[in-house]
């Protein structure tokens, strides 16, 4: 490329740090923009860095992407950019796979321990100044089914195994002797896999095949004492069915970091359920995560400028980065 490449960076209130963007700023014309200016910034741009990974503005501005070669999203999930025009284009899409794996695994373990030791119940007793002896559950020997066998699912599996839990995976293809999951069962048999799981952890990407995979049928297939942890996507769950399963005692509890409507409406029944833990889509947001996302992009930018293969290339038909 004889001219400087043009890189559009879509941001919200927070800009990437200047020092971290220096490798890009020194080699490219960088256009920082909010949603309102995205179409103008895309005109003639070679690269789009979707730093505002929650934005839904890309489809409406896509008509202006007349020179775009590469789109990078600062997230593990790529569903915001899997609209038909992008999927059918020649634009390479990459994601930020690997940044959140360890933090999300720690979150899942924390939620499982919170259920087993009833930490919310202890806090309620403390707040009422009540001294009440109780017994707790062990997690060692309990079974976790991890639905989604990508890098985040693998990090969760390794940590739960280290804590003494029996772990299985549920993925697109079944296989034996997996180094992290032991056994991976085919997702087509998900209802049959749920009956033995004490904890069901959803980390699957959002695709047309996984949307609403957790519904009345799958919750009914779980054991009554099972707990459900969702750190994947809110749209993996039919939320009304989850509420009914919790109310009826079909399952014993849920820890939810993602929702099909975010922020979760203030009047939503999930807020007031004593067997539900809610966090605001921050299970992977460790101190320094925003900077780590910029570094993933700038490292890939160095490869792109040098003509080397990009990391974390999304298979646009599958809707995620295939496992190595």
From TrEMBL:
Domain D-isomer specific 2-hydroxyacid dehydrogenase NAD-binding per the UniProt entry, residue ranges: 109-282
Presence of the UniProt keyword NAD in the record: yes
GO molecular function: NAD binding; oxidoreductase activity
Highest taxon of the lineage: Bacteria
Protein keywords: NAD, Oxidoreductase
CDD domains: 2-Hacid_dh_1
Cross-referenced Pfam families: 2-Hacid_dh_C (PF02826)
Protein name in the entry: Hydroxyacid dehydrogenase
Organism (species): Rhodococcus oxybenzonivorans
